[in-house]
Write a structure and sequence with these properties.
This protein is α/β, with parallel strands linked by helices. The chain has a domain of about 220 residues: LmbE-like (Rossmann fold). The protein is about 35% helix and about 15% strand. The protein has a seven-stranded mixed β-sheet with strand order 3-2-1-4-5-7-6, with helices on both faces.
Length: about 325
């Protein structure tokens, strides 16, 4: 999503894990639950619905537990849906985005936590303006990592999903999310790191989401033009930088989840300030998507279990480990 540069006073608000729960789904007791647990760490509200949402809905329906952690409140978000571009919406953006996130979490069936940091915005211009004081991207890495470690040790996920080193795209909050997620994956299981942040817990697998790759966009573009329609992706592909790496080459894991594309889209539309229902997000009919790209893609970057790639399950290798552990 595109964001502006506004910050709010939420930077001074202390983090209260219990108060920051927006899902009514009960927290399990891992020592008595047989469900496997997945945590997806995102930068802003709406990222959870545009990156891996069908996967999370699939795992929820399979009886597993999924928690979405949102690092910032999205306070600096621009209004990207013309139907919501009204002064009273912009004036109340922080509260509205929290309401939107709660709706999306309910649709997906996930538990949700706010990490409590303030949206950094997306600096634009030449030269780019400095980031606002107190925003997420400028928070000390150790401070931000400890907050995430607290939630990891509380929820005790077997799998952690986040962004690649470029943040999926180079938004400062996305890059920061990558940094603290990787650090927290290692720190959560180390009793010497953040000893006041709860009992150590080591996630077993770390993944990066792989989203709109050139191969995926080309497939959508060709499918739309084959139907005799004008493609909204043609210009995007024509302007694709020659030196941009093809993330498709990094895919190790594909989750078949076309059956949950409707839930994904409903969760996206819950973020009404950010998602225009007439945008290219919905240019390809779901039945066409199910035919040409019926999965969501991931890169396995760390695994403490035996899980040869390619995979078709984020929990591959974990069931056996948990059963004998």
């Amino acid at each position: 999503m595109q964001y502006g540069s506004q910050c709010s006073t939420e930077a001074d608000r202390p983090w209260r894990p219990q108060a920051e729960r927006t899902s009514t789904a009960p927290m399990s007791h891992p020592e008595t639950s047989s469900a496997l647990r997945l945590m997806a760490v995102h930068a802003h509200p709406d990222d959870e619905s545009s990156k891996g949402a069908a996967t999370t809905a699939k795992y929820v329906d399979a009886g597993h537990e999924v928690m979405v952690v949102t690092c910032t409140g999205g306070e600096a978000g621009s209004i990207l849906n013309p139907a919501m571009d009204r002064p009273e919406v912009l004036a109340n953006m922080a509260a509205i985005r929290r309401e939107e996130m709660a709706k999306a979490a309910e649709i997906l069936g996930v538990q949700h936590r706010w990490l409590g940091f303030v949206d950094s915005g997306l600096p634009e211009g030449d030269p780019k303006p400095p980031l606002p004081e107190g925003c997420f991207a400028l928070v000390d890495d150790e401070v931000a990592t400890e907050r995430l470690v607290r939630v990891i040790r509380e929820f005790r996920p077997h799998v952690l999903v986040t962004y690649d080193e470029n943040g999926g795209y180079p938004h400062p909050d996305h890059i920061k999310t990558h940094v603290i997620s990787v650090k927290a994956f290692d720190a959560a299981g180390d009793p010497d790191r953040f000893p006041a942040a709860g009992e150590p817990w080591q996630p077993l697998k770390l993944y990066y989401t792989i989203g709109f790759t050139k191969a995926r966009i080309q497939a959508f573009d060709e499918a739309i033009r084959a139907r005799g329609e004008e493609s909204p992706y043609t210009e995007w592909l024509a302007n694709w930088p020659d030196d941009r790496p093809d993330m498709q080459e990094r895919v190790t894991t594909r989750i078949e989840c076309a059956q949950w594309f409707d839930r994904r889209d409903a969760a996206l539309l819950a973020h009404a300030t950010q998602i225009d229902p007439n945008s290219r997000w919905f240019a390809v009919p779901r039945e066409v998507q199910a035919e040409i790209w019926p999965w969501e893609d991931y890169q396995l970057v760390r695994s403490l279990v035996d899980s040869p790639v390619p995979e078709d399950d984020l929990f591959a290798g974990i069931s056996q480990r948990v059963a004998v552990g």
